[in-house]
Amino acid sequence: MSNHLAIATVSATLRDLVDDAASAALTGVSINVETGRPDRLVPPDDEAAISIFLYQITQNPHWRNDDLATRNMSGNLVRRPQAAIDVYYLLTFFGVEGQQHPEILLGAVTSALHREPMLSRDRIENVVLAEAHLAASDLAAQPELVRFAPMELSLEELSKLWSVFFQTNYRLSVAYKGSVVLISPEDAVPRPTLPVAVRNLYVEALAPPRIEAVSSVAGPRAPVVAGDEIVIRGHNLRGDETFVALGEHQAVPSLVTAREIRIALTEGPFPAGTLRAGPVGVRVVHTRLMGTPEVPHTGPNSNLFAIVVHPRLPGVPLPPTGPVNTYALNVEPTVGPRQRARLFLTGSAGRHSIEAAARTTETTSLEFDLSGVAAGTYLIRVQVEGADSLLAFTDTDADTVPDSYTGPTLVVTP
């Protein structure tokens, strides 16, 4: 990178290159090569001259992104900023037109810049030594040499360029582009930092976990009941750290392989009171262990797979107790205050659907009003968010003996 004298050094070095080419082309003729506007350099008709005018600079499109992230999150300088620019020059040729001096000078300069398109480090150093005001220039140390290429200006573009020179007749001209000039402030020095002690390189394959099926451990067609163990099947299920998420809550599974995961729907793996009956989404969540020491980082998640968790009635249902016509029934898992719950009674005395009493807190005991329920024995089911508790039934192999439900039952007395 170069300091603030870089642009001036490019102009002076280009002038030196052009002067050498012009002097060799017109021997015995005094040639004045100057940097500046062509309307300021109008020699007599019998004198030859070349004007080198810097008329534009632009950002270099290839180097501009190399200047990103010069400061860290705290605002401290971590690398020297640099401005990458391209410089545009208009070269104008003067001389005795009858002897075609402008054309000769144009041909000589064009040939020289085609033969030597780069400003060599030796030429830059010689110019800096000869020019006292450029003594502090360090353009010669710039890693990228400045290269010149002719610009193809249309007649309209050339006319617009010459229109900025007030009351000046057009002279034979050609435009050149110099690329690239890297400028960096000398006072922008990053703070010294310690070298990297440990390098950690991690490669993440584009293969996130994918769930293909979720079922009860009892079989692919068996319903999923609270307290059961479920089996998750799919691809790429094993990560550095693997979790199973039901809704918003995560738990560590008991078995993890690349194709299968097993986890129990109990309050062992999952936090107490977080399991719910009803439809729920299952996801496999991965975390990556990175750093020294290793720290968990967020990894890929699987697709969402929906299952229905059926509630369970633990133990044998007790007969109604407490207030008249009120029946308390224990259920698993915990029922939230906003979850809908109903009790279904099916017996020879009739069928009933009773909504659970309103709740303000989470509970594992639901209360139902049995007013209007006739005495008798009933099969009972609890439905939470559309998921029913299961009924027990006899399973015989004899074709003549029909299967029948056997429980759980509730006896309602007069």
Poorly predicted runs of 5 or more residues: none
Identify the CATH architecture of the largest domain: 2-Layer Sandwich
User: What's the overall geometry?
Assistant: rod-shaped
Helix content: 10-25%
Mean pLDDT: 88
Taking Cα atoms only, what radius of gyration do you get, to the nearest Å? 44 Å
Which structural class matches the secondary elements? mainly beta
What is the first-to-last residue Cα distance? 99 Å
Order of helices and strands: HEEEHHEHEEEEEEEEEEEEEEEEEEEE
Structural domain tally? 3
Strand % is: 35-45%
CATH third-tier fold name of the largest domain: STM4215-like
> What is the tally of beta strands?
24
- Helix tally equals 4
**What's the story with the biggest beta sheet?**
6 strands, mixed
CATH class of the largest domain: Alpha Beta
